[in-house]
Amino acid sequence: MRVVFFGSPEAAVPSFQALLEAGHEIPLVIAQPDRPVGRGRRLLPGPVKRFALDRGIPVAQPEKIRLDPEILDRLRAAAPDIQVVVAYGQIIPMTIVALPPRGTVNVHFSLLPRFRGAAPVAAAIAAGETRTGVTIFSLNEKMDEGDILAEEETPIGSLETAGELEARLASLGAGLLLRTLDRIDEIIPRSQDHSLATLAPKIRKEDGRIEWTRSAVEIDRRVRALSPKPAAFVRLRGSRLIILAGRPVEGVATPAHQGPPGTVTSLSKEGITVACGGGTRYLITRLHPESRAEMDAHAFVLGGGIQAGDLLE
């Protein structure tokens, strides 16, 4: 089939690659505009655009697809049989969604109607879910509310970060997409049960601030849900300290040995133990101090960066 592909980040590349390897023709790719990256703020293309250009596939990058007067003409000229959307990052108007004969399908990294929105992987980990999956559904005028065509479930590892889980779901979704397209004319769409819907809104940098009054288990979920980006963080003596990895400490400490939430209770070769809500404790094992390279927590301790009794704000 002729497929116009909508996508931008690394998580969309496996589906893009799978379509090409399966023999589908992709006459056009729609991606987000190039964004400034790094300290120099250089404009760099995203992973999907780079993948397309390396293969000689034309790319369109409307700043706002709803307001671009030319994009509809380009899509008509591409004459797709179907359109595939994977982590594109913009709401697509119905004039575009309904353009191909077989419509437009989306690869979403959750089991809909759970976790509709921009950050379903992070939301599932933060919520303490033990299972998630991929859903292929038909786009309509509402966000992630279209009829389901196919889905596949997978467990969430107890130590798995959002980055690791998203990579697995991207691969899982690529295979499910191909199987769905092979049967697209036979599948009977299934309506979502909207009463079961939960939301997964876009994550902001400030959402990474750790609240030590929460339990160590909740904090561990937050750290994993925001890894690698935008990352969980605290402040130590006014400087930002990104927490890359850690784990809850077993058992509950007595108030006399705990201190208020956020207090560094002990330092060891394993890392930095911090008091959390309900007498629980969290062990930081890897971190990234401001203006320095990331390191093991023990190396940060040996460098004198932190002491027992310090308060992580």
**Given the C-alpha coordinates, what overall shape results?**
elongated
Report the end-to-end length measured between terminal Cα atoms.
55 Å
Number of β-strand runs: 15
How would you classify the helix and strand content by structural class?
A: alpha/beta
Number of domains: 2
Helix content: 10-25%
CATH superfamily of the largest domain: Formyl transferase, N-terminal domain
CATH class call of the largest domain: Alpha Beta
Q: What integer is the average pLDDT?
A: 94
Secondary-structure map with pairings?
Layout lengths: L1 E6 L5 H9 L3 E6 L4 E3 L4 E3 L2 H8 L4 E2 L10 H8 L3 E5 L7 H4 L6 E5 L11 H7 L4 E8 L9 E8 L6 H21 L33 H10 L6 E5 L2 E11 L14 E4 L4 E4 L5 E9 L5 E2 H6 L11
Parallel strand pairs: 1-2, 1-6, 2-5, 6-7
Antiparallel strand pairs: 3-4, 7-8, 8-9, 10-11, 11-14, 12-13, 13-14, 14-15
Helix pairs in contact: 1-6, 5-7
